[in-house]
Amino acid sequence: MKKYIIAIGLFVPTILFGQIDRSVRPEAAPAPTINIKDSKVFTTENGITVILSENHKIPRVSYNLVMGSDPMLEREKTGLADIAGTLVMSGTDNRTKDVLDSEIDNIGATLTADNNSIYMSSLTKHSNKGLTLMADVLMNANFPQGEVDRIITQNESNLTSTKSDPGSMASNAEAVANFPKGHPYGEIMTPKTLANIDRNSIVEYYKRMYSPKGSYLVVVGDITLEETKKMVETYFGKWTGQDPDKADWGTGKFNNGNRVLFVEKPGAVQSVVYVSFPMAITPSHPDYLKLKVLNNIMGAGGFASRLMQNLREDKAYTYGCYSRMNVTEDGSWLSAGGNFRNEVTDSAITQILLELDKIVDDYVTDKELDLAKSSMAGSFGRSLERPSTIARFALSIIRYDLPKDYYQTYLKQLEGITKQDLLDVAQKYWTGSNCNIVVVGNDEVVPTLGKFDTDGTIERLDAFGNEKIEKVPSDLTADEILANYLSAVIPNIQAKKSKKLAKKRTKFFETITSMEVVVEMTSPQIPFPITTKEVWVSPNINAQMTEGRGMTFSSSYSDGITGQQQAMGVGKSELSSEEIAAANKSIGIIPELNYATSGMKYEVVGIETFNKIECYVLKLDDGKSVLFEYFNRETFMKVGTMSIETQGEETQEATSTYSNYVEVEGIMFPSVINISTGQANLEGKVVSRTINGEIDLAPYKQ
Amino acid sequence: MKYILLSGLCSIMAFSGNSQREIEYLEYDLDNGIHVILHEEHATPIVAVSVLYHVGSKNEQTDRTGFAHFFEHLLFEGSTNIERGEYSELVEENGGALNANTSQDRTFYYEILPSNQLELGIWLESERMLHANVDIKGIETQRKVVKEEKRQRVDNQPYASFITEMFSRMFKKHPYNWVPIGSMEHLDAAQEEDYVNFYRTFYVPSNATLSIAGDINIEETKAWIDKYFSSIPKGEAINLFRDVENLTAEEFVAKYKIDKSSFDLMNFNAQTDANAKELVKKYSAMEIDIPRPKKADEQLSGVVKDVVYDNIQLPALFMGYRFPDQTHPDFHALEMMNDVLSGGASSRINKNLVEKQQIAQFAFSFAYGLEDAGVGIFAAIAAQGKDLDSVQMAFDAQIDMIKNELISEAEFEKIRNQYENQFVSTNSTIAGIAESLADNHVYAGGAEKINTELSEYLAVTREDIQRVAKKYLTQDARIILHYLPMEENPDNK
Questions:
Q1: Are B219 and B342 contained in the same domain?
Q2: What residues have CB less than 8 Å from B144, skipping those under 6 apart?
Q3: For the complex shown, is ipTM > 0.90?
Q4: Which domain covers residue A436, as residue numbers?
């Protein structure tokens, strides 16, 4: 046969090709093994386990140093590790933050740190400089008070916005449901625990956590064993510290039956649902890989996964429904869910539980298994190009005592997983009947949830996973609260009789025809200052504008009858008559003066704590959005508001806090206004508040 | 004599200290003209399969602009053996990732796959080359997609038209006159036949470079390339093949005077029917003439000043200089000059115009190197209340300085560090290597450039940088564009 082809080849000088049927798709070759070289391991005198993964492909070396301590209970200072981690790179005894940043840039290196690790990567030839900087941060971080204050304030804002962020609230509820109080994962930072964190405790944390004893240094890249030993001795040889903290925290809180935990988010049109349970699995356990395949089929494999196909494609309950596994040495859990419209919240939970039951009861299909394996093999393969992946693997092998060739044979292990394996692990670790069902949403969905709870009692939690304290009923009516507030902010006009007081006030306010307020705002999420301007001109003109970097981001103008608004990237639009009608309900220099007559719906909700202050809470509804106003129970000053605006299937929340009241023309106004939304926390200072000044309305009408 | 030796020594030391590693590869041509480059490395069990077609917007007709980029979209629509929408699915289901991009000079497609799926990748790209679905259904779908892309990336982005405005003034004769996104009117006006002709002209083996890198076995890879790519007919025979597949029996007979059933598509290059064999032979010998423009020789003869009104709030200044093409010996020095001016936060333009003088919100410059010509662009958005003339003065002061004074040793060192970093990053992934090899083969005179390019950068001296600044930053021949807010357009009032 071969001869024959050669003979023909002689006659036909153009190259001859065999027959090819292009409609036949190529089959995959056997799964490849991975050429990760064995790492070399040695221990230093001061207690660092050094893991070297030599790879001279690129002239770059990375050093990842992970501390040896287990997570510890933080109790009244919960949040300390996070705060300390954020601050490690804030400067050292030898270098300010700016100097540190610029020295890193000059050699094109990367240097990052968090609460228990520090990472440096640079070209091989800049290793000395890079390690000098790394060692400096490692041993001499000095946590300047100014930076500490800045980060604490930033976290205060974050916590304020937690109350309007359903995702964070659901995670908090899930954590306390899966883990008991005495487990580090069951601890949640609250404004109260944050207030207990100061520079001393941060420095103490750093000194305790950042210690060579029991730490792992993973070196990956263009460096030999001899060079590594020399480098480690030179830069980390003098590093000292205490013995690592070790603890066994157990595996979590297992339920007997399903448990429903509800967190109220007033005004929500969607619920966040997490169906969750702890799993007694660690990263070093052989079942872990099988669980990953199982979870890929369930809800981590993107579009083709069961949750997505059922709840999005088939039922259209949501844009996305996923399942996530968190697996650590100190505790592991599964979380399945997504965002669902109020009216389908219970149906969505039914389907998620059904899918859990199904996967625990029955084999997955061959097709599902194949798809999960190939997509996992693919992303595993591509991830290996990143040196950080290799570093992570080298560390896992040592730390979790995995077989030396665990990652080399990963694809073969993956290939070998069967349907039976998946059913076995599903039955061993998963459940559809002993779950924590966390729902964050509108009170109106609560009646539909009782059927999921085995004992029929729904537990209510607050934003931080604490048992929700029932609202204290108010001892004053809404009108009494408003009257007290007005007396507090207009202190100079007093009268015994209410009629006389009203007359005096009317006369006073007749003299006020306009007000312009300029607030300068800064935000950790926005790299430049923002200025907001708001004007009111008697009787019904209201206009606003937000500017920054010389650009106008948004503006609006309404004269009480018509109006317009524009926003960068969105464009200009006329205000609808509903929008103007809503705005007219809270117009004026002190909108509360007119609630009784403007058509604003208002009612008293009760007494609640807002930013550690006991407050009367009023709920307002202008037909377009809902607003909660918080009045200090002692002084009756307004200390904050929370607004909820509904846009289609989404709601947008903003929490504002008011403080540092000052008198302007006989009226008390706040001079500090902070606003937090899901996207950003803004800290605002009132730079001017002008009453009866000249006002140019033209810029607002652009 | 001694002096020369010393300076030579310095550059030798510089070379020996650089972080370049040799990248090994193998290259050969298939009989049908496809250039193949293979780079074997087993560090990671993945492969990158890429095909570079030497066609970009500069190969388009003046009344059919946007075609090259349009094809980048169209060619994901499947082939004779791949259903519509299935192309990406096949890659993703098999653990891969894929993408493509288009410039003035090239269209580049690639897949990154687990190495046991290499054959799949080779088959997919061969299907795209041989007989992709170029039909009205796909054209209509992709027209919508491309229009949406233009709306998002150009029309709705303030200042985004500056490249179009700059190139249309810089090149009056050369097709760099327009940019890859092209004209939506042209795409609408074009008929199915225009699209088919574009495919028949540019998507042919002799215009393609197949570059594969990663965890491959060379012999096995060559065998698959032979199976799927060598079987693609040579010269005009590829279009004969396409006609056998796409034309009706009547159309085919009318065109070729032979029945299309005479052809064996599974063994196209070795037909058994004598007439078919003869025709394949004849068409294989007919080379496809790929239209390419000549290198741009037009120069600016003076200062061109213009105003563009855009949907913006702050005025902006864009200045353009004519640079040589990307392979010109001066181009590396121009790129390094540009980095002194604009490479990162600590560069001259940012430090002076933005931070110190606060005359601009954003300011930067870049060296735009292309196959037939280059362009140097300076751009700044004025700070609130600053006028564009003062921005221009600030730019001109920087330009004067780099022309009149050598850059400092420290700046020089930082730039060289940046280059090395950048170079190492590009070649740290197999997809990056596959792309660099193909690019260097087509545009830089040979794939080997991948191993010599860093040395070329490091051989550039401070004096070279000053020399090219003087030569190309011609203040008496440049384009100056003022971007002003729409409201200021006198025609609007």
A1: no
A2: none
A3: no
A4: 259-461
